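pinned: reference chain
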Amino acid sequence: MKADIRDAASVEVLRPLEVASYLRASGWEQVDFKEGQYAVWARGAEFEVLLPLRSDLRDFALRMGDLLRTLAKAEDRSQLSVLSDLLVTGADVLRVRIRDEDLTDGSMAIEDHTRIAQKVRDMMMAAACSAIEPRPVWHKRKPDRAVEYLRSVRVGQTERGSYVLTVISRVPPYLRPGQSQLFGETEEPYERVVTLRLAHALEAVEQAAESSAATGSFDSFEAAVPQGVSANLCEAIAGLASEDETRRSVDFAFSWSRTRPVTQSQVSRILVARDRVPFVREAARLLRERSPVEGFELEGPVVRLERPEGATTGHITVYAVVEEGPKRVRIELSEEEYNQAVNAHRDGHDVRCIGRLVREGRGYHLKNPSQFAVRVHD
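pinned: its C-alpha cells
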C-alpha cells in the first residue's frame, strides 16, 4: 500500500514554476492557462492536472495535493517519492550512501555524523575549486567564487539505506535561445559545472584506484588531475570511507535537475568500494607532497644559519607552520638578507617572506623568496 499524503504543510512548500518545469520535462503538455491563476497540463488523453500558479490562493494546498496524487498514479510511484523529486526539481542532487552493516537502521554515532558532514563539505569545496581550475592540491586560500557557491549548497534530510546524506545544489533553469540566436550551445552555469566536475572526478578516482592496484603506479591519479582529481578530493573520499582501521564502501548517486537536463551519457552513479580506499588515501598524500605551494607566506624563528666562507649568499632554516603543522623550512638569501637573519636569530625575532614552498625528501624548501623582513616582537 502506497502512502497518501494529506498534510497540507507537505505540499504548501512546492513552487508552482518548478512543478511546471517538472511536468514539461516528464512529457506533459500545457493545454490551458489563466495568467496568475492556474495552468492545465495533460499527458495524452488519460491524465490531466490543474496547477495553481500562486501559493497565496485559498485552495493552493488542496490543488497541489490533487496534482500530487495524479502524478503518483501516472508514474506508478508513491506520493512521497514524487514529492521528494518535486521539491528538488531545480537542483542537482547528490546522495552519498555509506555502506556498512552497522548502519542498516539508518542511524550513526554523532561523532561519525559530524566527521562525514565535514568530509562531504570538503568534497563539494574540492569540486567547486577544480571547476575554476584543476589543480593537484588546493591549499588554504580558496577562490571566492567557490566559497560563495558552497554557501548556497543545502543538505537535505538523511535517507534510509545504510546511511544516506543528501546534498542539494540548485542550478539556473535552461531557457532555449530564440530563432535569432546565432551562437552555439549555451554555456553551462558554474553551479552545473561544479556537479558535473564532481561526478567525473569521482569516476576518475575509482578508475585510477583500480589502475594503481594493477600497476603499482601513481601515474593514473596524476593523469586524472585535469578531470578534477585532487589531494583535497581524495582526502574527502578516504575520510568518508574510513576512520582508523574501519573501511566502508561509499556510493555516490546523482540526480540531475529537470529544469536543466543533462545528456543521457552523464555519470549518474559511482561506487568507491572499500578495497579502493587505501589507494585513494595514498594518492592524496602523494598529490599533496609533490605539489608546490605558490605564494606561500612563511613566518617564524630562525633555527639554523649556514654560509660558506667567502660566499655572497647564505641559507637559513626557519621553524614555520606548514599546513599539517610546524616544520623546518630552508631558504637561500642574499648577503644583505642573510645578515638581517643573523641579527634576528641573535635578538630572538621572527622573519617572514613569501615564496614557492617545495617539499624535498622529508623537509621543505622556500624558493624564489621575496619581501624578506624581520618581525620585531613588542
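why pinned: The two ends are 75 Å apart (CA to CA). The longest strand covers residues 293-306.
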